[in-house]
Every structure is written in C-alpha cells, then in structure tokens.
Design goal:
The structure holds two protein chains of two kinds. By secondary structure, chain A is of the alpha/beta class. Chain A has helices spanning about 10-15, 20-35, 45-50, 90-95, 105-120, 140, 145-155, 175, 200-205, 210-220, 225-230, 245-265, 270-280, 305-310; strands at about 50-55, 70-75, 80-85, 125-130, 165-170, 185-190, 190-195, 235, 285-290, 340. Chain B is of the alpha/beta class. Chain B has one domain: 2-enoyl-CoA Hydratase, Chain A, domain 1, CATH 3.90.226.10. The chains are: A alpha/beta, B alpha/beta. Chains A and B meet through helix 6, helix 7, helix 8, helix 9 and helix 10 of A and strand 4, helix 4, helix 5, helix 6 and helix 7 of B.
Chain lengths: ~350, ~300
C-alpha cells in the first residue's frame, strides 16, 4: 500500500539487534523526550501549516468544551475532512488551559459528536494523537471517562466513513486510542505509543519511577517498534533534530501522506472499508493454542481421570495421550511446536 | 468446568487455608462456610473475589457450562523483561492459579436460557487483559453474534497487561469492535463488573453493556485511586470509584448483591433477548440495525450481506 519511508533506528531486537543496552536506552529515551517536547507542533499548529479553511467546532453538547481536544472542518490538499486531535499548549498558561493535552470525558464526547457528523456528511476523518493519557482526576471519573473512551472506540470502529490517524507525539494509552481507531495509522518518527506511560509502568513493575527508561525500552514504544509490531502502518520521517525544528516541513511531509491515504481509502465501498477496519484490529496480538493440558506429569491422583473426562466432553481436536508432550492442533499444523496464531 | 492445570499441588491441605479474615469487619471466617455463602462475609456482607469456576457455578445452571477455546496461551511478543521475564511471570501465574490465562469463555444456560459467558479471573496476573483475554472476549462476542445468544461478560481486572505493550492496548479496540457488531445486530450484552474492574477493561467492553451490573463495593474506575490522588491535590470523594459511586453517577444500572445476582440476570434475560426475526439485511448479524441507515444508504440500497468474520 504505502511506500515505506527509509528509517534506520537502532531500537529493539526486531529492527536491529541492540549492541549496547545503555546506548539503546538513551536512544529510546531521547525519542520519548522529543515526543514530549513542549515546542513540538501539536494538532492546531500542524493544521495551520498543512490545511486550509480550518473551522474549529466546539463543545460536546452535554457538559462543556474541552480545550484538550480540538476538532472541526479542514481542507487538506484540497480534500475536505473532519479533524479531531489532542491539543497541548506550547507555554505554561496555554498548557494549563489545555490541561497538558489530557482530555476529560467531554473531550471524547466532542470527538464522538464530530465522528458522527463526519459520517452523516460523508466526509473522511483525520485524527491527530498526542496525549499523555486521559485526565485521571475525580471530575473525569465521575463523568465517566472510561465510558467516554470505550464509546469513542466503538463509534470509530463502526464509523461508515474513512479514518486516517496520525500519532504526532505521545500516544498515551486508552486516552490516545479513543482517537486512534483508524483504517490507517501513521506516526511521526519521534512519536511514541504505549499502553501506559514509562513512569507508570516503572512504578508498577519495577516499583520505582526511576526505571522509566528501562520500561520505555521494554514496552517498545517508539514509532519504529510499533511499525515492526504492525500496530501502526507507516512512519513519517521528521526533520533533523525533531519536528519542532522545522514544523512546516513536518506538516508538509504529513500532508502528502495523509492525502495519499485519504485518496486510497476514498475508493473503497463502505462494507469493504468496515470489514478491513474490523480485520485490522481483529488480528492484533499473538497467542498459542495448546490443544491439551499435557505439559507436566500429573502430580496428584485423580488428575488423569479428570483430564480424560475433559477429553470426552467433546473436544474433537485433541490428539495424542496428552502426557509429557505438547500436542498441537493437527487440523492446522503438523509440527511439534505449539501453533502460533496470528488472527 | 474450566480446565484445571494439573500442577496446582496440594495447597488445599495447608491449614492456613482453613480460615480467612474479612478485610472489612476483621471477622475470622471458616473457609468452607464462606464458600457455602458464595464468598460473602455473613457478618458484614463483604464480597470476596470469586475464581472463575465459582463464578460460573454461581451464575449458570448446574453442569451446563461448555468451555470454548481452553487452550489459548499468551506468548511473549515483545521479549518483555521487567524484574522477571514475562514468560516466567506467566508460568508462575499458571502454576499458582491452575488456569491458562485471565479469562474463560463458553456457553451455558441460565434457568434454561442459553447464553454466551465470558468470565475473568483476577487471580491470574491481576486479571490483566493481554491478547488471550482480548481474544476470548472477542470470540465470545462473535459466537454470541453468530448464534444470536445473549452475551454476559464478568469483568475482574486491573486493566491492560503491560507486558504485551500496545498489543494489549489494541485489545480494547478489538473487543469493542466485536461488541459494536453484536449490539448493532440487536443481540444483547450484559456487563457485570466485579471487584476490581479498572483501567483498560473498564474503558472498553465493561463500560458498554446494554445493562451494566456491579457487585456491591466493587472497585470500578479508570485510573488507580493513587494515580488520581497523586495527579491532583484535592481529596478524593468518599466511596470514590466504588460500585455505588458509579451507580450514583449513572454508569451502572444496578448494584446487585451476590445472592440476588442470578435471579436478577435471569429476570433481565426475559427482556434482553436477541430479536428473533432479525432485519433481513442483518440475517448474518453484520449489518447495523440499531443505528438508522443513513439517507445515502436508503438511496443506494442495503449493504451487501457478508460474513462477520473478516
């Protein structure tokens, strides 16, 4: 589909075997810091440089307008679209007003409203993702931030119009995903995408936030790693020094890729579009299917009987005696290894 | 019954397993009696967490459960190492709990009504949702859609499984997309939130039931209370993130004590049935019925029928 831009990033063992752990950690952490750079162009700055006729729309029609999420109409290289994105500020006061890009539920409900508007107008949606995460305070909880995120994901998953998602900075967990269920997900080179912030992972798994850099490496959160994991579809290179060095050049590079994907998606009929989107998320993640419980020897009397009972309870696919081996689903694979599924 | 892995040892015979102290009223409770009381403290009504098989026994008609896809196991896609490598954590969790991952799904009956049921197990790595949990929830939803069975999901989870990185995060989209198709096709979904239902599980399928139920005092929230308290300086409200808090703010339909859970769901199922004569275009369940067709569609005709499984 898309041409893959040339990127050579020394991260993770799937992309290139790391030579030195410290070097790897520094390289990954440098990207985390670039993704968080306060001068990095955010949604409105990027749109200013790449789009024309931008009209912002405000409010979720339920509670208030959340400044951490912006949205409205824009024209990208002549193509009309509805845009939705997280918005951080580039200095303290603006950042406080924007809540550092951490939306409350009303931000996601504004997004939902705009998605549905786009569907009704049959305009494509372009989303820009850049948030540390949804705001975790009591106000957010009591107005149902989890429900708002879940609903936003559900609306995007079934939206009958094309969606192109761009990860521009921090893709922080569910608060990012609520704007990121695209048909195509592209990411700027120095953006990151993770299930929890590196600091959060460090305090839970290492029991100390000091291990954030290790957590960042372990979670493989850089754009290049996410491409290797097929969570994103394309990485768009940034100017030397990062997007904030040349915001206009960054925006231009993004504009051509967004336009390319909008055109590619515009040709699809809606059923094909929706089925492809469903399949895109349906295949995420790997697991093995082990068709019997036969790893170790039974340790207790009666186990074999219970196992036999289970066998007889109708699992036709089970083969072998199930003891001391790892039999596989022979319908699908003849090898002795557990079946690695990639759905 | 869910499969028990054979290596859980003789832990039952250890005397410390005989008594449990109630964390609410400090009463020492005899385990056998506690089990008989559906693991609800007879003195103060504290709801202890239930393991998968106890939960299934509580909800379904006796011996009606048929587990599906019991053999799914997580793999270490990222080569994730924190203080321990992820495969070691998985192995320890399997040995410690006797189940393969943090969810089990299958079909069964409730007072004779056939349902698809997916139950999470907090004992397995905090009930965290990785690819296997996401897959089981999704398969349960897809099966419910294909067979037009009401779907019940019992959540008990700390959230997404960090060791699977963004692939865990993607399970939110995967499960919610499947539920969207289910609900669009007019097949009902009951979400039961038990202690705890937080993070990515609450922010995906658990919040989206046609009817949301919760057990009393269950912890239900998006961010951990400590995160919330640390992020902002204001004091947390009383009962913050408990089932009753969610009820008060309109995100839970009913808070149901465990002894009344089964009858409540059976009562709901009399109303929550898949429409028996589905719209022609949604005969395969894939076509949106709940949402009105757009004007454009009424002009261009119905969407083509296609199988749900892409």
């Amino acid at each position: 589909m898309a041409e893959q831009p040339a990127i050579a990033v020394p991260v993770g063992d799937q992309v290139a075997p790391p030579v030195d752990q410290d070097e790897l950690r520094n390289a990954v952490w440098a990207r985390v810091q670039l993704a968080r750079n306060v001068h990095r162009p955010h949604t409105l700055e990027l749109l200013r440089a790449m789009a024309t006729d931008v009209i912002q729309l405000h409010g979720d029609r339920l509670f208030r307008d959340d400044p951490a999420v912006v949205g409205g109409f824009c024209r990208i290289d002549g193509r009309r679209a509805v845009f939705v994105g997280h918005q951080k500020g580039d200095e303290v006061n603006e950042n406080v007003r924007r809540n550092f890009g951490m939306p409350h539920p009303e931000g996601y409900r504004k997004a939902i409203r705009l998605y549905l508007l786009a569907e009704r107008l049959q305009l494509p949606v372009v989303t820009f993702v850049d948030t540390p995460g949804a705001f975790p305070g009591p106000a957010s909880e009591e107005r149902g931030v989890a429900e708002a995120i879940a609903r936003s994901i559900q609306v995007m998953a079934g939206l009958r119009t094309p969606i192109v998602t761009v990860i521009t900075g921090e893709g922080g967990s569910g608060g990012a995903l609520a704007l990121a269920v695209g048909d195509v997900v592209i990411a700027l080179e120095n953006s990151v995408y993770s299930v929890i912030s590196p600091e959060g992972a460090a305090s839970i798994l290492w029991r100390s936030p000091g291990y954030a850099q290790q957590a960042a490496v372990a979670m493989r959160l850089t754009a290049a790693e996410q491409l290797a994991l097929r969570v994103i579809d394309e990485v768009v290179p940034e100017p030397v020094g990062g997007a904030h060095e040349q915001p206009d050049a960054t925006a231009r590079a993004l504009r051509s890729r967004i336009a390319y994907h909008l055109d590619a998606l515009a040709g699809r009929d809606r059923r094909t579009l929706l089925d492809a989107r469903y399949a895109r998320y349906r295949r995420m993640g790997e697991f093995v299917t082990i068709t019997s419980a036969g790893e170790p020897k039974p340790e207790r009397g009666g186990w074999a009987d219970r196992f036999r009972q289970f066998l007889e309870s109708g699992r036709a696919a089970i083969v072998g005696d199930g003891v001391g081996t790892l039999p596989t689903d022979t319908d699908l694979d003849e090898s002795d290894l557990p079946l690695r599924e990639d759905v | 019954m869910p499969i028990k892995l054979p290596f859980s040892g003789r832990r039952q015979s250890h005397p410390t397993d005989l008594w449990t102290q109630c964390p609410d009223c400090q009463e020492m409770l005899y385990n056998k009696q506690l089990d008989k009381n559906q693991r609800v403290c007879p003195r103060c009504g504290h709801h202890f967490r239930l393991r998968v098989d106890a939960r299934i026994g509580l909800l379904l008609d006796r011996d009606s459960f048929r587990e599906q896809d019991p053999g799914l196991e997580s793999v270490d896609m990222l080569g994730f190492v924190d203080q321990k490598p992820y495969p070691e954590r998985l192995e320890a969790a399997r040995k410690g709990t006797g189940v393969r991952d943090a969810a089990v799904w299958g079909t069964g009956t409730m007072s004779g009504t056939k349902v698809a049921l997916c139950v999470m197990d907090f004992a397995f790595m905090g009930g965290s949702m990785g690819t296997v949990v996401g897959e089981k929830v999704t398969r349960a939803a897809e099966h419910a859609l294909a067979e037009r069975l009401p779907l019940i999901i019992v959540s008990a989870s700390g959230g997404a499984r960090m060791q699977e990185g963004t692939l865990s995060l993607m399970q939110l989209a995967k499960t919610v997309a499947a539920l969207g198709r289910l609900q669009d096709a007019g097949v009902p979904f009951i979400s039961l939130m038990t202690d705890p239902t937080t993070g990515g599980v609450f922010a995906s399928f658990a919040a989206l039931g046609d009817v949301n139920l919760a057990e009393p005092k269950a912890l239900i929230g998006f961010a951990g209370a400590r995160v919330a308290a640390g992020t902002i300086s204001e004091a947390l409200p009383e009962g913050f993130q408990r089932a009753e808090f969610l009820f008060e703010h309109g995100f839970v339909d009913l808070v149901v004590p465990r002894p009344r859970l089964r009858e409540t769901i059976v009562g709901l199922l009399r109303y929550l049935r898949a429409s028996t004569a589905p719209d022609k275009s949604s005969g395969n369940g894939s076509s949106p019925m709940a949402r009105p067709l757009s004007y454009l569609e009424t002009l261009t005709g119905r969407e083509p029928q296609e199988a749900v499984r892409g």
